[in-house]
Amino acid sequence: MELHGVRVEYGPVAAVDGVDLTVPAGEFTVLTGPSGCGKTTLLRTVAGFETATAGTVRVRRSTGVVFQQPRLFPWRTARGNVSYALARHGVPRAERAVRADALLARVGLAGLGDRRSWELSGGQQQRVAIARALATEPEILLMDEPFSALDALTRERLQEEVRELAATTRTTVLFVTHSAEEAVLLGHRVLVMAPAPGRVVAEVTVPFRDLATEQLRTAPEFTALRARVTELVRAAGDPAPAARTRTA
């Protein structure tokens, strides 16, 4: 995906301005920054839910979207929610149940296809939402703070699953989060945004993607980079003028 000079306005206010961004195939790119910096607006513009006032957005591949809330159909089972996406993708009815069950198993929900949304925990519901997004076999996955409403343990488990899923499928991911730890844990690259208007002010490359998730959480270099991203986010939210640093 490629963004050049993107500006998004809500009335007289520019939510995002002057954003240039290229995400190569297979990369896991994370957007982070203080509240109101335009992270979600930028992701929604890539998804086509918002229209850029100026600039260009080019997305050359199919996309799937996972929101902050699962947004499941409550009258459908877990299998039914995934089957709905398969139907919209043109999958024949005879194949949908098998394909849906395979996708649910892929996100750790094997055997739970017959459960309704109220019978699932918050983490399980978000797994269904991820399976539904994967049903269309997207080459790009857009994720807007998908774990923000979950408890800490469930969040850690889903972080690990998404990290492994992206690595095995080589899906291109654009991920929005407020958490510096989550950004460094998941991303190949972390982009820090600043508000008024929203723009990218720093870029950090994550060099230790080959480490297993549990090894990574306790590695000294992970702790140092997390602190660096936290510092950049705090600086981005500071209303006083500050020097912006790009980190290779």
From TrEMBL:
**CDD domains listed in its UniProt record:** ABC_NrtD_SsuB_transporters
The family database entries (Pfam families) matched by this protein are listed as: ABC_tran
Segments forming domain ABC transporter: 1-220
Question: So which domain of life are we looking at?
Answer: Bacteria
Q: Which PROSITE patterns match?
A: ABC_TRANSPORTER_1, ABC_TRANSPORTER_2
RNA-binding recorded as keyword: no
Q: Which SMART domains match?
A: AAA (SM00382)
Question: Does Transit peptide appear among the keywords?
Answer: no
Keywords assigned by UniProt, alphabetized: ATP-binding, Nucleotide-binding, Transport
Gene Ontology molecular function terms on file: ATP binding
- What is the protein's given name? ABC transporter ATP-binding protein
